[in-house]
Amino acid sequence: MVTRTNGAAVDAVNDKPVWFITGCSTGFGRELAIQALEQGYRTVVTARKPDEIKDLAALGEALVLQLDVTDQKQVDAAVAAAIEQFGRIDVLVNNAGIGYFAAVEESDEEQVRRMFEINVFGVSRMIHAVLPSMRHNRSGFIVNLSSIGGLRAFPAVGYYNATKFAVEGLSEALWQEVEPLGIRVMLVEPSGFRTDWAGRSANEVKQPIADYAETAGAWRAQVRKASGHQPGDPKRAAHAIINAVLAAKPPHRLPLGNAAFEGAMSKLDELRKEFAEWETVSRGADFPKE
Fold it and tell me: Residue ranges of the Ketoreductase domain (predicted)?
């Protein structure tokens, strides 16, 4: 017998929810996997290099799998293995992602396409893979890791911003489609956290353009310098994400970190102010009312 609470299936025989997390080698993914396992959740722990996450198997009921979200065969195989092992997937966390530092004009198309392939199409592949079983169960929870950069853009990361804006739009449409089916969707929008995002997982422009030194160049240097010293704590973030998933009324968007919250509120104020200033022009674009 299966009952459902807040969009997550609960098996009367085994009430431990099944979490499936991508990108568990470092950062949010690894910390989420640790905390999920420590809380007794059955957890599918995935990474491109499984040797980097095999130690997590000792923490609880874990299924450690190789997964490159750009590889459709690996995506399908991992989801099938998870369902075969645990019977279902209750919570999918789309965490795998990379960054890229370059002004828009400086950006290398190959690097940009690779980032879109991971950050956008990787998320899409995972969603497509888990939705059939979630729809069948009429339950499930999809957590998509976005960024404060998915709400407001910054110099030097324009194309990274574009990937996260895409995830935001995809997620907003998705929750309107699947919530009537018992499936919840949440965006997580962190600011600066002490992960490897600005170090190991973010390449940068090889031939900078001098004209962007004071904008994209300065921002790139600032972010690189702060790497390892960001105010955000990945452990606290993972705890917040798990608690939000378990909440009676989970948010659609969860900014994490003071800079994320303040940046989001500031963006709302900026939009409201500018829209109001141009309200007459905006409304005047319709055919006159008869």
Answer: 17-191
Predicted local distance difference test score (pLDDT) of residue 3: 34
Let me know if residue 222 belongs to a domain.
Answer: yes
Catalytic residue among 25, 139, 146, 191: 146
Residue 135 burial by CB count (10 A; 0-12/13-18/19+): exposed, middle or buried? middle
Query: Side chain identity at 204, as an amino acid letter?
Result: E
- Domain CATH code at residue 243: 3.40.50.720
Could you say which of 107, 139, 159, 164 is catalytic?
Answer: 164
pLDDT tens by residue, 3-44: 334 554 444 446 789 999 999 999 999 999 999 999 999 999
* H or E segment and range at residue 66: strand 62-66
| Neighbour-count burial for 93-124, b at 16+ CB within 10 Å, e otherwise | bbbbbbbbbbbbebbbeebbeebbebbbbbbe
The domain tally of the chain equals 1
Residue 210 belongs to a domain: yes
Q: Answer yes or no: 54 catalytic.
A: no
Is 196 part of any domain? yes
- Would residue 290 count as lying in a domain? no
Task: List the catalytic residue out of 160, 171, 201, 212.
Answer: 160
Residue 146 designated active-site: yes
Which residues have CB under 8 Å from 41's CB, separation 6+? 16, 17, 18, 19, 60, 61
pTM of the predicted model, to two decimals? 0.92
Task: Look up the domain containing 244 and give its range.
Answer: 2-283
Q: In this predicted model, which residue has the larger pLDDT, 89 or 191?
A: 89
Catalytic residue status for 249: no
